[in-house]
Here is the input.
Amino acid sequence: MENEALLAYLDKICTDFDGDSTQLETAIGAFIFGRHLGWKPLFLIHSKRTMNKYQEILGLDFRKELPEVGKLARKSVAWRSAETLSNFWKAVTGNTPGHRSTEIDKKPPK
Here is the structure.
């Protein structure tokens, strides 16, 4: 979605929203940040349940609207850890412990 269309869409979501404003705010924030990180790192930062809630609030499928891996993905500690795994979804579901983190590095290792 192009920037202008995205802003118009988010404006409409805000106008029509009924519920906890903090949930709307965090859903929008996750989506905007996801444009830079990608949906895979987002799924490592947030639980699958939270991601589903954000997608429902915004009426968007993050996997269709966001890049799989964004330009800033390497800043995510969880993403760098998960890159070593053969099965990404096992990290998302917690079947391979130690690969989930909310930490973002200012200057990630190369």
DSSP finds seven helices and no strands in the chain.
